[in-house]
Amino acid sequence: MVSRERTYRGISARAALEYLEGLGGERVDERSVAGDGWEAAVSTGTVQIGPTLTLTEVTVRFDGREGTLDSLIDRFSQKAMRAGG
């Protein structure tokens, strides 16, 4: 089992959870989704950009088999980048 963590801007936690479900996972609880050989937990925070701008940042912690995670993270990242503009 390996763990990887990625951060994304421009998407909501709700959207991240929906993307994970679309990639074959099922909701475990309000912040986690699990699929065949993987599990992902979503959290949010804010980051300061310059003196006046604050953005929401979504962090996804992926746990699972290495080969499974490589593909899952790539597919998730493609969805997240398209959504963020």
Number of strands: 5
Rg value? 13 Å
| Order of the strands making up the biggest sheet | 1-5-4-3-2
> Looking at the structure, what is the overall shape?
elongated
* Structure annotation, total helices: 2
CATH fold annotation: Ribosomal Protein S8, Chain: A, domain 1
Oligomeric state of the chains present here: single chain
Please, what is the CATH homologous superfamily? Molybdopterin cofactor biosynthesis MoaD-related, C-terminal domain
How many structural domains can be distinguished in the coordinates?
1
Main sheet specs: 5 strands, antiparallel
Helix content: 25-40%
β-sheet strand percentage: over 45%
Distance between the termini: 33 Å
Structural class of the secondary elements?
alpha+beta
Kindly state the mean pLDDT as a whole number? Answer: 93
Task: Tell me the CATH architecture.
Answer: 2-Layer Sandwich
**What order do the SSEs take from the amino end to the carboxyl end, as H and E?**
EHEEEEH
**What CATH first level would be assigned?**
Alpha Beta
Low-confidence stretches: none
